[in-house]
Write a structure and sequence with these properties.
disordered N terminus; two-stranded antiparallel sheet; alpha+beta; 36% helix; 85 residues
Length: 85
C-alpha cells in the first residue's frame, strides 16, 4: 500500500481545506470582477463557463485559483509518474 502524503496550501492539508461532505471544493477567482468562490469539482467546468459567458463574452477570465491549479497539476504529474527520473 502506498503511503499517503499530505499536500499543503495555505498551511493546511489540501484534502481538508477544500472538501465538502462528498467531494472537493475548488476555489475559483475572477480578478476582473473581484470575486472568489468555491464550487464542487463536479460543477467546476460548467461554473467557469457560465461565469465567463455571462460576464466576459466567453473569454476565459475567471479561473481556478492559480496556487491551487499549480498544486493540483503537480499532484497529477506525480501520480502519473511524469516526474520520475
Amino acid at each position: 500500500m502506498k503511503a499517503v502524503r499530505h499536500r499543503y496550501i495555505y498551511s493546511r492539508p489540501l484534502n481538508t481545506l477544500f472538501m465538502s461532505d462528498t467531494e472537493p471544493m475548488i476555489p475559483i477567482v475572477c480578478e476582473t470582477c473581484g470575486t472568489e468562490t468555491r464550487v464542487p469539482l463536479s460543477t467546476l467546468e460548467e461554473s467557469l463557463r457560465k461565469h465567463n459567458s455571462s460576464r466576459h463574452d466567453g473569454e476565459a477570465v475567471a479561473e481556478v485559483a492559480p496556487e491551487v491549479a499549480d498544486e493540483l497539476a503537480s499532484m497529477v504529474a506525480e501520480d502519473l509518474g511524469l516526474l520520475d527520473e
